[in-house]
Amino acid sequence: MAEVDLADIAGAVLIDAAREAAANAYAPYSRFAVGAALLLDDGTIIPGTNMENASYGLSLCAETVALAAANTAGRLRDVVAIGIVGGRKTRGGLDGSDPVRPCGRCRQMLNEAAQIGGRDIIVHCASGDGGAIERHLLSELLPHAFGPADLDLH
Ligand code: THU
Fold first, then answer.
1. For a FRET experiment, which of 99, 136, 141, 142 has its CA 20 to 30 Å from that of 115?
2. Measured from the CB, is residue 27 less than 6 Å from ligand 1?
């Protein structure tokens, strides 16, 4: 099976894994819990959740936390897809009817993985209430990206 097929089929699984991660979000300031789950080319799933700080500007997004975990495992170049979900925590899960799309910084972080891996990354975005799901390509979310290729390092 081609990698891009695996990444497409895995959308619902990735969003489920992201939702599980969001339960551990540390977001006492915004109260907006986000979960992310990366899919690697061998089927491995790597979760991440947002992690805020009393010094607000230091807060880390779920996508970036997941990418750092992939890098720690030596797998940054193997990312094929990501699932993202977020919302305010409710008793039953998360609220919100708009899909959570990665912020600008996280798009740039994802682009690093995409360029060193030599592939586009599929981005599955879900709303907290689960009612809305979108599928994007990173290249659509961050067109004309600056990346490692521009530095001639890879
Ligand atoms: N956040 C993420 O973790 N990922 C996104 O894609 C959007 C925003 C976090 C950052 C902050 O902790 C909270 O959501 C509110 O912005």
1. 99
2. yes
What would the CATH number be for the domain defined by 6-95+105-122? 3.40.140.10
**Residue range 92-149, pLDDT digits in tens:** 899 999 999 999 999 999 999 999 999 999 999 999 999 999 999 999 999 999 999 8
66 lines ligand 1 (CB under 6 A): no
Cβ 65 vs Cβ 26: under 8 Å: no
> From atom 4 of ligand 1, which residue's Cα is the shortest distance away?
61
Cα–Cα distance between 94 and 56 in angstroms, integer?
22
> Whose Cα sits closest to atom 5 in ligand 1?
102
Query: What are the sequence ranges of the domains in the chain?
Result: 6-95+105-122
Which residue's structure tokens are 């899919």?
39
Closest atom, ligand 1, to C-alpha of 100? 6
Which positions are annotated as active-site residues? 63
In terms of Cβ atoms closer than 10 Å to its own Cβ (0-12, 13-18, 19+), residue 86 is buried
